[in-house]
Amino acid sequence: MSRTPREILIRPLMTEKSMRQKEELNTVTFRVRPDANKVEIRSAVEAVFNVKVTSVRTASFEGKMKRMGRAEGRRSDWKKAVVTLAPGHKIELVEGA
User: Fold this and answer.
1) How far apart are CA 75 and CA 66, in angstroms?
2) pLDDT at residue 96 above 80?
């Protein structure tokens, strides 16, 4: 099953912590598909942004239970990837809107 790099990377995560890590540690954080592995994530980031990746760390999160009145539902599970870039490489993400 072959997926395009744009299918693997869902969106960048822009939180205070990830923006601080981007400046200090040269890392970028992405929300990725839950079934993507580190090798796929590395090749997707290198293909889309044309940078060199030194390491990829992933974390899986379970969706939270939410209520709307009497009805209960569940948010979907998701996965986060923290990608460390090689020295001299940068990814410019659009901040704000």
Assistant:
1) 7
2) no
